[in-house]
Specification:
The chain has 439 residues and is of the alpha/beta class. 38% of the residues lie in helices and 21% in strands. It has 14 helices and 15 strands. Strands 3-2-1-6-8-9-7 form a 7-stranded mixed sheet, with helices on both faces. Helix 7 packs parallel to helix 9 and helix 10 runs antiparallel to helix 12. The longest helix has 19 residues. It is globular. The two termini are 43 Å apart.
């Protein structure tokens, strides 16, 4: 039996007719690429506008009772240009008219049409059947994926198609209306499709030759990661590495389906291979990658004999949970505990949280530190190397950076440091040069 590959192509890979032709050549070059998940057209140049952004603007104008005819015309012309250059018979106007006729209070429907129309165009160009994601992907009332219904139904639909093109980014909500994933959610659709058909491989085609070991906007020409585990990818994605949507890991990880991140513009490159474990004999650096994010703050609670109070930490974290403020990290000491959270989210509930901490826990001091950036040094091989934390401190000290927080995961997969936002770029470069280049 032949292998099954699910291939997802991102917006940059499908930005115009020229890019779509490249994607089509890749698809046709391997008959095992049977199920194709597509994004909406992305930017054609730096100053261009993504179709999805145009659709969100359309909805915003509709809701504020503004004239949206020009925005609608721009969307129509963008697709019409693609259809003309691909030389296919496709009625763009009727699709755009349908969007205008079905605008409502929810932005999910119009936002989803970017993928929907693009998938129909690409299906026509390839000569593949079109399968609408709304018929196979379902959400629970709380917005989470209904896994059992989705994997069974989607799998049954796709089993009936030798080949298919599927729009990414959306499914059907519990109320029967279109519901989207968060931005970048076409990655998740591809992962769900791969799980539903028990694919042998999930390819994610984008505009870079794999996942980079650091942010190229900060580090000059960072190395491509040849192979990485699901766990390492999850850590790096969560901390800001943006090649793959962080939620795209879970469906394929559970089924043991590997992911291969590839470059549509350089299809000969191997890209990054993501799997549960790294094959024996593969030589890798102890540190796989470095990623981080700005915009954090730390709420430091100090109370003498805190360690003797049963449930002190649980009560503190419950206060944040009750106010819908998720915590990121929670470093502790004997008489202190710090909760690191997103600053903007915290600010929206600041007074309520501080009041409840004082009334419930009676602390000696509460200190708030703003302008915090968190950086993760991630590597499955770090657990077997002595002095990794010392190397982190040495690298940052040598760059003149003061470490405001350090938190190491219990599995020793990552070391997270908190630094001033003003030291963020300096810290990333120092850690990359000392942890990846030199070791």
């Amino acid at each position: 039996m032949s292998k099954i590959i699910v291939a997802k192509f991102g917006g940059s890979s499908l930005a115009d007719a020229s890019q779509i032709r490249k994607a089509a050549e890749i698809i046709k070059s391997n008959p095992e690429r049977r199920y194709i998940v597509v994004s909406a057209p992305g930017k054609r140049s730096v100053d261009d506008i993504k179709i999805t952004d145009m659709l969100y603007t359309l909805h915003k104008k509709f809701m504020s009772h503004e004239d949206f005819s020009e925005t609608l015309a721009n969307i129509r012309e963008r697709y019409a240009e693609i259809v003309r250059e691909l030389n296919i018979d496709f009625d763009v106007s009727s699709e755009i008219h349908e969007i205008a006729e079905n605008l409502s209070d929810s932005p999910d429907y119009p936002a989803s049409r970017g993928e929907y129309i693009n998938a129909k165009i690409i299906a026509k160009f390839l000569g593949f059947p079109f399968v609408d994601a709304k018929d196979g992907i379902f959400f629970n009332e709380n917005g989470t994926l209904n896994e059992s219904e989705t994997f069974y139904t989607f799998g049954e639909i796709l089993k009936g198609c030798e080949y298919a093109v599927i729009p990414g980014f959306y499914g059907t909500g519990h109320d029967g209306r279109i519901k989207t994933f968060s931005r970048g959610g076409s990655d998740v659709t591809g992962s769900i499709a791969a799980r539903s058909v028990n694919a042998d491989l999930y390819e994610n085609w984008t505009d870079v030759s794999g996942m980079l070991s650091a942010d190229p906007r900060i580090v000059k020409a960072p190395r491509v990661i040849d192979c990485i585990t699901y766990t390492e990818l999850r850590e790096l994605s969560y901390m800001g590495a943006s090649v793959l949507h962080e939620d795209a890991v879970f469906p394929v990880r559970k089924a043991g389906i590997p992911i291969n991140i590839r470059n549509t513009n350089r299809p000969g490159d191997n890209g990054t291979y993501i799997s549960a474990d790294i094959s024996a004999g593969v030589k890798r650096s102890a540190v796989t990658g470095i990623a981080g994010r700005k915009g954090f703050c730390s709420i430091r609670v100090e109370k003498s004999m805190m360690n003797g109070e049963t449930g002190f930490g649980a009560k503190l974290l419950y206060i944040f949970a009750k106010n819908n403020v998720p915590f990121e990290h929670c470093p502790t000491g004997i008489d202190t505990i710090s909760v690191v959270v997103n600053y903007q989210t915290f600010e929206a509930h600041r007074e309520s949280i501080l009041r409840e901490i004082k009334n419930t826990l009676d602390p000696d001091y509460i200190t708030i530190e703003k302008n915090l950036a968190c950086i993760a040094v991630v590597g499955q091989g770090m657990a077997g190397v002595r002095g990794m934390a010392a190397r982190v401190f040495t690298a940052l000290s040598g760059a003149g950076v003061n470490v405001r927080m350090i938190d190491q995961g219990s599995d020793e997969l990552n070391i997270i440091v908190g630094v001033d936002e003003s030291d963020y770029e300096t810290s990333i470069n120092a850690l990359y040069n000392n942890m990846i280049i030199q070791h």
